[in-house]
Structures are given as structure tokens and as C-alpha cells.
Amino acid sequence: MTLIPFLDLDTVIYLLIFILGWSIPLSNVLLIIFYQNQHIGWRNVTRLLVFSTDAGFHFAGDGKLGGIVLPNDGRCHLENNMYTMSHYYDYPSIAHLVQKLSENNIQTIFAVTEEFQPVYKVAMLSISSKLPEGVTITYQSHCKNGVVNEGESGRKCSNISIGDEVSFNINITAQGCPKQGKPESIKIKPLGFTEEVEILLNFICECDCHKQGIKNSDMCHNGNGTFECGACRCNKGRVGRQCECRKDEVSTEDLDKNCRKDNGTDICSNNGECVCGTCECKKRDNPEERYSGKFCECDNFNCDRSNNKLCGGHGRCECRVCICDANYTGSACDCSLDTSTCLASNKQICNGRGNCECGTCRCTDPKFQGPTCEICPTCPGVCTEHKECVQCRAFGTGEKKDTCERDCSYFNLIKVKDRDKLPQPVQAFPLMHCKERDANDCWFYYTYAVNNTEKEVHVVETLECPAGPDIIPIVAGVVTGIVLIGLALLLIWKLLMIIHDRREFAKFEKEKMNAKWDTVCPKKKKKKEFKTGSRNLLFEPVLEFLFLDFPKFQDCFIRSVVFRFTSAAF
Question: Where are the transmembrane segments (predicted)?
Fold first, then answer.
């Protein structure tokens, strides 16, 4: 089914029914669109036509199957939404469609199914088909980002945006003089644009040196040609640089041997023809490309390329080998000898830890990386250096949380669930494991690595924070401690008392053994009489306090404690 959404609704419905029912040739549909400019409302600008279908198409010559032989006149013939000349005119040709596309500045996009892609994958017709006889054109495009295309690719630039500037170099070569010799004009314009460049060609078929030619000159092998403009123009039947051979001799084996570099190799390296024992190299479409050498073994276009440029744009190709400009080396002249790009911040080449090769540092110390070997992911202080940025980007905390986007966007942050998921050190690039603590005494773990020029940080997404105090065990511990300390003090006091009592008892036992005790009860002492004035006080205290050894003096005891007070009043 084919959709044509830019016609009016009635025409679209009609065309859909007509296409589905009668399989209208898609080439006729395109011609109808070309002549519906007043209905579509296109302005005089570049036009885009999206052509969507899931079927093939007919073209000029297919109408003969139905007896229709008149070529298509390229007109609309649409009346009341009906194409009225399908029985009279043949299908339009592809060249006819291309002509109408060019005249109306229409660029076509074929949106077709995969089955019919090969059918619609057609190359653009070359402008060379309209060139004068004997004239060739070569193109060279200078596209954006310094891309230079040559040959067939030199006719186009891709991925052009508004405001981009591209340039094209066009070389026009006349292989000979046209038969008529009159000036010819060539028009060149970009596809889809109305602007064009018209070139007027005036052919110079005779040079001044031609008028001074010497016929049958001795310079041309015994007069077998005319010497003009510094070369021999051989007489009929003669060939060679100096007309030294006859045409019937140029294919002999003896002469062919002179055109082989070694036995078994191709004649003239398959890049030329052996004429009279001498190789005449082929001419290429691009006049800047040429074969050279005695056996046409050399050329100036098959050297190594860099950045899609021959010899990297820093040299010339001679015999398939790049001859580099000053300060460049390498097979494609892509290696710069300039060391300014290898200078580190300390003005040392590659920071003194590598070699400058082709303008790029090759670090010899595996710990150091970067463009100038100044980055050391495993050196001391790396963890502290990146701590604040890792903290603000991973957890939104830290001193740099307000300026995180501005100051900490120099590395790629990758979060992992736990520490086991963190990458491990490998030989490809060094890696540093870091453990840091934030203001809340929480620990976070991360790794810092530099992979080529990319800096990567893997961080564990959860913090490890210390748990809060458990009150019950603390109170229980304090109470238990107090009780145990009290019991310990009591035990110590009791122990001291026991020791003291034992010492006193031992002392008492010792004194008891040393004492001399009487074996009988002591006698009563005489009474003593004291006189005081008019009274006679008879004080007869008898205080006997005896400590007796009961085992020895069981018959003795404290006899008496007698206080006798006698006075005259009594």
C-alpha cells in the first residue's frame, strides 16, 4: 500500500483505492505529485518527498505487455481525481523521474520494506552524462570536521547542519578537442537547491608550439614522426616515445620481456601497456593520481592513510611510500615529533615517568596515568583528595554539597550494594580502595580508578554508622558493679577482722603462757582506817577482780566486792 499524505483528502482516498484495486504504477504517482504543486502549496525552496510502499514499480517498456507503445509525455492527465491516460501512454522511465525531481528541486526518501530495498536502491545519475564529448569532471569535497572526500564520494557531504560550511573543488579535463570546437556550457548545482553554477568551456585545440613542429624530425627515430611541443607525434604505423617501433612489433615476446620487472610478474605491473618494449602507464580519472616507474610499479595514491587522509595530510605519497613533512614520521605520517603536547605541569616531558611517542605520553611507571602521566590513582593522599566529592555526589553531604555539580563532575560515579561488589585491582589499570569517615562518624567505602582518560568511582551506597547506646545493659552493668564492689569491700573487711582477731588471740595465748598465776585464793587484806576531822571514816574497800584460769582454780571465783563505808554518823 502507498500513502501520499500531502495531497487533498479526496485525492488521497482515490489514489489509495486506485492503487489497491488496480495496482497503479508508482512512477505515475510520482509524476502526479510533480504536477500537483498548486494543490500541495510548496514554496520555492528545497522540497522533501517521503515515498512509502511495500511493492515494486513499473517503468518504461512494461506497457508493451498491454499493447501500449507511446512513451509517457510527462504530464498529469488527472481529471476528477482520475488518471485518464493509463490506456494510452506507457509508464515513465527512471530518467524521466530523475529529470522531474531535479526540475522541481525535490529530494526523495524511499521508505520501503526490506523485501524491496534492492529494487529502490538506485544510484544517482551522474551529471557526466550531460557533459560535452571528451570532457570529464572530478570532484573533491571538504566537509565539516576536516573530512575530505575524493572520487565518487567527492560529490557529497553527509551530516550537514544549518550553519555548516562546506566547499567543493571541481576539476574539468578535456581529453581532446571536440569535433565542432565551439564553446560548451556546463551547469552544476546541489541537489534540492535552485542555485546553480554555469561554466563556459572554451577549448584550445592548437598551441603555438604546434605551429613550430618539425616534420620527419631526426628526434623521432630517423624521421618517423613530427617533433612538436617537446614530444614526438608519430607517423601512421609507428609507436613509441620516439616512434622507434612499428605497431605490428609491439606484442612480440622479446619486447614484452623489457616490460616485466621480474620473471613471472605482470607486464607493466598490470598498470600499463608495453609499447615497443617500454611501459606506458595507464591514466586515471583523477588527474592528480598517476602511475609511475619504469614498470609502472609505483603510484601516488596507494599509501597508508590516517584520519581518512593520504599520508595523514602531513606528507606526500611517492611509489606507495609516504614521504613525511618535517616533525612527522610513521607509515602514514601520523606520528608527530612535537613534544609540546607531552609537557606536564612541572615542565617535564610526561612528568618524568614516561616517553613521548607521536605526541602522546606512554607512561613507563604503571602507577601513573593520564595524558602527561600525572594521574596516580594509588598514590598516598588520593582517598583524602576525592573524599568530599565522593561524599557529596553519593550521599549529598559534606563540605562541597552546595558546589557539587561545579566542582565534582570530573569522574563517573557508580553505586554498588555492598563492599563485595567493589572492583578489585587488575593489571589493566591501577585502582585504589578507600575508607573514609564523615562528620557523623559514619564510614563509607569506595574505589578510585583511571581507565585511560575516564575516571571511575565505585561507592557502596549505604553508610556504616555506629549503633546507639543500649540503656538497659548499661544500667544493669552499673548496678551489678556497685553490688560487686560492696560485696568485695565487705569481704575484705571481714578478712581483715579475722586476721586481726587471730593475731590478738595469738598474742593473748602467748601472754597467758608467760603469766605466773597463784594457785590459791588470795588472802584478805587488812582494813585501812582514814581519819578526816571529827569523823572517822572507815573505808574498807576490797576490790578484788580476779581473772582466774578456770581449769586450775575452779574453787576460786570473785569472792566479793565489798564496799563498806563506816562513819561516825552511823
Answer: 12-35, 471-493
